[in-house]
Write a structure and sequence with these properties.
Largest sheet of chain A: 7 strands, antiparallel
Largest interface: A-B, 18 and 24 residues
Helix content of chain B: 25-40%
Largest sheet of chain B: 8 strands, mixed
Number of strands of chain A: 7
CATH topology of one domain in chain A: Alpha-D-Glucose-1,6-Bisphosphate, Chain A, domain 4
Strand order of the largest sheet of chain A: 1-7-6-5-4-3-2
Distance between the termini of chain B: 40 Å
Order of helices and strands of chain A: EHHEEEEEEHH
Number of strands of chain B: 30
Mean pLDDT of chain A: 94
Distance between the termini of chain A: 29 Å
Helix content of chain A: 10-25%
CATH class of one domain in chain A: Alpha Beta
Number of helices of chain B: 22
Structural class of chain B: alpha+beta
CATH architecture of the largest domain in chain B: 2-Layer Sandwich
CATH architecture of one domain in chain A: 2-Layer Sandwich
CATH topology of the largest domain in chain B: Aldehyde Oxidoreductase, domain 4
Oligomer: heterodimer
Radius of gyration of chain A: 14 Å
Low-confidence stretches of chain B: 1-12
Strand order of the largest sheet of chain B: 3-5-1-12-9-10-11-22
Chain lengths: 141, 818
């Protein structure tokens, strides 16, 4: 499914792009724990978004395919028990008067039982989770 | 052959057989005193949970169980490489494709690749079910996604990803069936009805009890004790034995109460092998209790089938000459019991009709979906559905009355035994009488008036007929149509009846019941043969391979128990009777053949003073053998163990011709339904079912089976669908998204029967449990009747959105009349 959103943040595009792979900063994001970098340079973290069903911890691997002042592309793979989520997120950074406007679109695929159980609620849950973690990370730039 | 009718409560000529005796099983089940797979307490029992693939097709790039080992209660795990080193691949029915290697199927994902969502990758054990679940959730598996193929039509295209690399093709089996001369028939017929494509959808019978396997390993004797709802225990034993390189006689399989199987639990050997290996590794008894979601992923789906380029040849007078089509049977990611379905359908090649010409190109095709297993009406209902749809479409398109059209083309009562285009022999039946009774049940004439009155009201009334057969007692030689090197031929079942030391009678059948009432029907037959009462007979619950009542084909499947299971019990009881006669004759000074068994006594014929009660006979044999003549004492053990052998010959493999089934029960259903034009919602207003399964053993059990099969069929036609998205994700992985009919969804069912005794079976009975899918045929026909020719019903699944599409003219262009 395709999800989209936008928000503004104080950081510049370059500062936002520089967050990629910087685990020390990302540890400060409220929904991310156990943040590390693996041998391939991908960020691994326990991502625990708030959902209407309570917190759902997901073992997450975030690979940055591209990151520069104009935007970034992230490939995210998250698993929880028999469920998996693959998301490809494209971000565009536009300079504004007091920082940047971030517009994002995500192509999300649910896998495992979540694809069945979650098919009616996934859009809302995922949209909120992505928006929150992106805002949280952008605020660190 | 005479055909009689009787009501369901009429008794037969014997004291117990033929009567609607209350089921022996029901008392304990209604008191919640049954013992199902998850009920048995076992000391030190550990639990297994499977880590399953969330991908439809992916390469496994890493497995990390370190986090699982830190979960409190963790006992151990089984990894794919370990499973591969400990096992041989499961036996495959089909040979490898030419110039390629065979499919490899193991209890955990093989070859480093997962091939369907829900495929087990790691088996994890812990000391509680919850701990096992948590430990499994902590296992990290990395995947590299591969392109999935989820539609059989795509799977046979040249650029499709190959699911089993070593087979080099997604076609697991391919064959041509060609009987008569269908090209001649099509060329010379007055009319040819052509349909581009029809689709039989994927669903399952979803038994109430999912699979449960408990494995105990005794290292002192190197013995596995497996408990679970195993519907085909001997085949399961052999599959596990060969996979685990373990002697079959050191695997004991026991089942107690089973909450349904309908065929799908035949696949139990796959998870059971993993549980057994882990139990041996950890030296602990282990249990795996399948969740509903797991069952939906892997518990066994019914065959999904595409019918393409379908053509039916029809004469001006309504005589149907022949049929041809191409079948793509979507078997999912592994063949397992498949591609046997590629032969099974030919048991009912003619369906209910006098077809003279039939040609089918059949391909069993792998896709990245859950594997299929035999499911109530296995493989035959798909073929009979397409035949019945074509008959119905032809009647609509050519302007024939659908009742008259069927009556004209049915196999007629005076044609039995009727030899089909492929050499199968339909044993008995009266289809015209069955149809007339079915129409009476729905008050057909009144329903037509109702249909007229509904016009223009926003509601539409449709009337549909489903004509079908329930073929029972397989000739397993049909497997040679798939692979001529297979050793199978014929069919047998075992039974054992014994007289205990106190004179009580115990019977064991090799046919494992999962709700059919075997304890009841066995007791009825044994009571009659021994001259005892129904309550005198104790029948073993479930199955136990250690009791020696089984043969290689033992189990409950393919609508055969009334023939094979009861046949074996009859033979076993006769053996026991003979031993009782030997003992009584020796003691009473009479010839054995002059001893009659009656009222719990072995009596000298016509001499009431000379009799021995059964407990006295048992006492003599068990405790005073020295008082018997040696030749009697040496022969008598008071255990009758026998098999029933179905009288089959090998078919002609070249022509694919020969008898594949012993009996053919018939099911004729008729229904009246109402469609809401605005919503597409369907409501069944009247539903009639007429069964003919030969001489009844217990009419109440039969009627119960008919009700059950009808509920399954109605539910499949309107509610149940294992849909997959383009990514290979199952969109109905639990009962939130897969609606199996409940009592709220069911119409009131009206039942009647016809009795056409089979000339080929011990007591004239026929197997009948599967039901043949008549509701799917009847509901499709009724929806078509309501829609008219505007849109065409070319899918077996018709939820409201499909009905709305049909009302808007969907698929009309796919049907042509020449």
């Amino acid at each position: 499914m395709r999800l989209t959103g936008e928000f503004t943040t104080a950081g510049s595009g370059a500062a936002l792009a520089a967050l990629a792979g910087r685990t020390d900063e990302l540890k400060a994001v409220a929904t991310l724990d156990e943040v590390t970098t693996d041998a391939d340079g991908a960020v691994r973290a326990l991502f625990t978004p708030a959902t209407p069903f309570g917190p759902l911890p997901l073992r997450t691997r975030i690979r940055t395919e591209r990151a520069d002042a104009s935007g970034a592309v992230l490939a995210v793979h998250a698993v929880r028990a028999q469920h998996a989520v693959d998301v490809r997120i494209e971000l565009a950074f536009t300079a504004g008067e007091s920082g940047s406007r971030v517009t994002w679109s995500a192509e999300l695929a649910l896998r495992g039982p979540a694809a069945s159980v979650g098919q009616r609620v996934a859009r809302e849950v995922a949209n909120r989770a992505i928006a929150e973690v992106l805002r949280g990370a952008a605020a660190l730039a | 052959m005479s055909t009689t009718t009787q009501t369901s409560t009429e008794t037969g000529t014997r004291a117990w057989t033929g009567r609607a005796m209350p089921r022996k099983e029901d008392d304990r089940l209604l008191r919640a005193e049954g013992e199902f797979g998850d009920d048995t307490p076992i000391h030190r029992l550990g639990h297994v949970f499977f880590v399953r693939s969330p991908y439809a097709h992916a390469r496994i790039t890493g497995i990390d169980v370190s986090a699982a080992t830190r979960v409190p209660g963790y006992l151990g795990c089984l990894l794919p490489e370990e499973a591969a080193s400990l096992t041989e691949p499961f036996m495959e029915i089909q040979g490898p494709p030419e110039g390629a290697e065979p499919e490899v199927d193991r209890c955990l994902a093989g070859g480093g690749v997962v091939r369907f969502v829900g495929e087990p990758v790691v088996a994890v054990a812990a000391d509680s079910r919850e701990a096992a679940r948590d430990a499994a959730a902590a296992v990290a598996v990395d995947y590299e996604p591969l392109r999935p193929v989820v539609d059989a039509r795509d799977a046979v295209t040249p650029d499709a990803p190959v699911i089993h690399a070593q087979t080099k093709t997604n076609v697991a089996w391919e064959g041509l069936y060609d009987w008569g001369d269908v090209e001649f028939a099509l060329e010379h017929a007055d009319h040819v009805i052509s349909v581009d494509e029809l689709h039989f959808h994927r669903f399952s019978s979803t038994p109430l009890e999912c699979m449960v396997v408990t494995a105990q390993y005794d290292p002192g004797t190197d013995f596995f004790h497996i408990t679970g709802g195993c519907a085909m225990p001997q085949i399961t034993t052999l599959m596990m034995a060969s996979a685990m390189r373990h002697p079959a006689e050191r695997i004991r399989i026991v089942s107690k109460d089973i909450g349904g199987s309908f065929g799908v639990k035949i696949g139990m050997y796959v998870p059971a092998t993993a549980v057994a290996l882990l139990a041996r590794k950890l030296r602990r008894p282990l249990r795996w209790t399948e969740t509903r979601t797991e069952h939906h992923y892997m518990g066994g789906h019914g065959n999904e089938r595409w019918f393409r380029d379908v053509k039916l040849a029809v004469q001006d007078d309504g005589t149907v000459l022949g049929l041809t089509y191409e079948a793509l049977d979507d078997v999912g990611a592994y063949t397992r019991y498949e591609p046997l379905g590629a032969a099974i359908w030919t048991q009912v090649a003619n369906a209910a009709y006098q077809l003279k010409h039939l040609k089918v190109r059949y391909r069993s095709v792998y896709t990245n979906k859950g594997p299929v297993h035999p499911n109530r009406g296995y493989s035959r209902l798909q073929h009979m559905w397409v035949v019945e749809r074509m008959m119905d479409i032809a009647a609509h398109k050519l302007g024939f009355d659908p009742v008259g059209f069927r009556l004209k083309n049915y196999v007629q009562p005076n044609q039995y035994p009727y030899t089909t285009v492929n050499g199968c022999v339909y044993d008995s039946g009266d289809l015209p009488l069955s149809l007339r009774k079915a129409l009476d049940l729905i008050d057909y004439e009144d329903a037509r008036r109702l249909q007229e009155r509904a016009r223009g009201t926003g509601k539409r009334i449709g009337i549909g007929i489903g004509s079908t057969l329930d073929s029972g007692t397989n000739n397993f030689a049909q497997a040679r149509l798939i692979n001529p090197h297979l050793p199978f031929a014929g069919n047998t079942e075992g039974g054992l009846v014994r007289l205990g030391a106190d004179g009580t009678v115990y019977a064991v059948t090799g046919g494992v019941a999962f709700g059919q009432g075997h304890e009841t029907t066995v007791a009825q037959v044994v009571a009659d043969l021994l001259g005892l009462t129904y309550d005198d007979i104790t029948v073993h619950r479930g199955g136990d391979s250690a009791l020696s009542a089984q043969t290689g084909f033992s189990g409950s499947y393919a609508s055969q128990f009334a023939v094979t299971g009861i046949g074996a019990i009859i033979n076993a009881t006769r053996k026991l009777s003979h031993e009782i006669q030997l003992v009584a004759g020796a003691v009473l000074g009479a010839a054995p053949e002059d001893i009659v068994l009656e009222g719990g006594l072995a009596k000298v014929r016509d001499d009431a003073e000379r009799a021995l009660p059964f407990d006295a006979i048992a006492g003599i044999v068990h405790f005073a053998p020295g008082s018997l003549p040696p030749e009697v004492a040496d022969e008598v053990g008071l255990v009758g163990r026998a098999v029933y052998r179905a009288p089959f010959e090998l078919p002609d493999l070249e022509e694919k011709f020969g008898n594949l089934t012993l009996t053919y029960a018939t099911q004729i259903h008729a229904c009246v339904l109402e469609i809401d034009e605005e919503t597409g919602q369907t409501a069944i207003l009247r539903y009639g079912m007429v069964d003919d399964c030969g001489t009844p053993i217990n009419p109440m059990v039969i009627e119960g089976q008919v009700h059950g099969a009808t509920a399954h069929g109605i539910s499949a036609a309107l509610f149940e669908h294992f849909g997959y998205d383009a990514d290979g994700q199952l969109t109905a992985a639990n009962f939130y998204d897969y609606h199996a009919a409940t009592a709220y969804d069911m119409p009131s069912l009206r039942y009647d029967n016809v009795v056409s005794p089979s000339p080929f079976t011990p007591i004239g009975a026929k197997g009948m449990g599967e039901g043949g899918g008549a509701p799917l045929h009847a509901i499709c026909a009724a929806i078509q009747d309501a829609v008219g020719d505007h849109g065409m019903i070319l899918d077996s699944y018709n939820p409201p959105e499909h009905v709305l599409r049909a009302l808007r003219g969907a698929d009309a262009e796919k049907v042509k009349v020449d």
